[in-house]
Amino acid sequence: MTAIDRSLARFVSFAGRALPWLAGATLLAFGLGLTASLAAPDDYWQGATVQIMFLHVPSAWLITLIWVVMSAAAITTLRWRHPLAGVMAKAVAPLGAAFTFMCLVSGSLWERPMLGTYWLWDARQTSVLVLLLMYLGLIVLYWAEEHLARVARLGAVLILAGAGMLPVIRFSVVWWNTLHQPAALAGRAGPAIHPAMLTPLLMMALAFVLLFVTLQVAAMRNEILRQCVYAGRLAQAAASAGQGCR
């Protein structure tokens, strides 16, 4: 067994031990976060519609964080060619697509009672839609080739190229005349949101992060096991072909 094989085996072993604890922490965080969110007061202008914020905002924060995680994996792939980095990028891409879709849907539902429509081609909406298409493109790339090592470097290049969309998403409400509200937590005067809403929002953000980490570890473990099965089938097919040629 090579050093790389040992590192992959150690990760599978680590994932098996960590997943029950991560799943328990995620369930606890969501229980506390949802309880606090339901107890939060209605907004004076939006009314009960503001409850969508506790799903939309954490997912919006998470989609860029996931691409940052993939970018770190891409740099590791290009610099050190460690297969665990390629596994991470492939496993995380579907999660990023799912959370981006959730962000778009929840944002549209939140926008409908406020602006009278589900979609306005707002700068923030459009940039997030582009991010979703980028996630889907990566998924197609990884699905097109069974052998991960053959597409890991190409996927890493595309990930780093797509990282240029992150500042566009982050600062679109500043750079363009957009209907999307500006950041409520990053203002110079401090958070422009009441603590009664800020506390459950941060609790839900923590729950979303724990959910992502749990799903990421599980997806990476499954991908490693799948690659092992694929390699075993190739070896078996090669052995069978060798015996047939004798």
Notes on the structure:
The protein is mostly helical and 246 residues long. It has helices at residues 3-39, 53-80, 83-115, 123-144, 148-162, 165-175, 195-244. It is 80% helix and 0% strand. The protein is globular. It starts with a helix and ends with a helix.
Oligomer: single chain
Rounded to an integer, what's the Rg over CA atoms?
21 Å
* Biggest sheet features: none
SSE pattern, N- to C-terminal: HHHHHHH
Tell the overall outline.
globular
- Structural classification: mainly alpha
Count the beta strands.
0
Low-confidence parts, pLDDT < 50 over ≥5 residues?
A: none
Helix content: over 70%
Beta-strand fraction estimate: under 5%
Question: Top keywords for this entry?
Answer:
single chain, 246 residues, mainly alpha, 0% strand
Describe the SSE topology.
Layout (H helix, E strand, L loop, with lengths): L2 H37 L13 H28 L2 H33 L7 H22 L3 H15 L2 H11 L19 H50 L2
Quick rundown:
With about 250 residues, the chain is mostly helical. The chain has 7 helices and no strands.
